[in-house]
């Protein structure tokens, strides 16, 4: 089995951290600043019977000017070419306009979208249900997977779920 997976989400939710864990080495640039990495950074996850190529898409956000517009369109067009999209949110932050903007765009896409709730190490387990309800009321997700990219919680589950989708 093989396929392409794009990781999207607003800045600082942990996309680069997850990608670093996937490839097992620090190749994605981690930064608190949006758009430090304009190019797609690809990582490969390989098991004996599966290979998944990951694409970090830092260009996906609400554009502020026309050049931004063009870059955002380019970033979104990449989402049509992948087999699955990981929409990552942070469990310790409220759903905001950045999240809603991304979901509006993901809704019109045929590609299956996984809701990845990151940073579960920062919240009480009881808070998860409310977060899941909040997002699943906005759009349909192929799967919902709570993880901690730094601690590694549910990492294997996320990979297994993705491979099952391919
Ligand atoms: P990106 O902008 O989406 O690529 O986010 P980064 O991967 O650069 O992460 C932003 C910040 O969140 C960094 O300081 C990370 O160490 C932190 N972070 C990422 N994942 C987790 C997590 O699962 N738990 C906690 N506590 N912090 C995280
Ligand atoms: Mg990043």
Automatic annotation (TrEMBL):
Q: Where is this region: G1?
A: 9-16
Entry keyword annotation includes Chloroplast? no
| Chain spans, region G2 | 35-39
Specify the species.
Enterococcus saigonensis
* GO CC annotations, alphabetized: cytosol; plasma membrane
Membrane topology per the record?
A: Peripheral membrane protein
Q: What is this protein called?
A: GTPase Era
Give the Gene Ontology MF terms in alphabetical order: GTP binding; GTPase activity; ribosomal small subunit binding; small ribosomal subunit rRNA binding
Positions contributing to GTP binding: 9-16, 56-60, 118-121
Cite the residue spans of the region called G5. Answer: 147-149
Signal peptide feature range: none
Q: What is its main location?
A: cytoplasm
Region described as G3? 56-59
Summarize the subunit comment. Monomer.
What gene does the UniProt entry assign to this protein?
era
């Amino acid at each position: 089995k093989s396929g392409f997976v794009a990781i999207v989400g607003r800045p600082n939710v942990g996309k680069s951290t997850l990608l670093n864990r996937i490839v097992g080495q620090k190749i994605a640039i981690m930064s608190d600043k949006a758009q430090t990495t304009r190019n797609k950074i690809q990582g490969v996850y390989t098991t004996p019977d599966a290979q998944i190529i990951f694409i970090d898409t830092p260009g996906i956000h609400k554009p502020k000017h026309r050049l931004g517009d063009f870059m955002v369109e380019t970033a979104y067009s990449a989402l049509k070419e992948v087999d699955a999209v990981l929409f990552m949110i942070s469990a310790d932050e409220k759903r905001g306009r950045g999240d809603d903007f991304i979901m509006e765009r993901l809704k019109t896409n045929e590609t299956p979208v996984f809701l990845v709730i990151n940073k579960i190490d920062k919240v009480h387990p009881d808070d998860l249900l409310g977060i899941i309800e909040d997002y699943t009321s906005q759009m349909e997700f192929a799967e919902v997977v709570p993880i901690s990219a730094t601690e590694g919680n549910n990492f294997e589950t996320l990979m297994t779920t993705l491979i099952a989708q391919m």
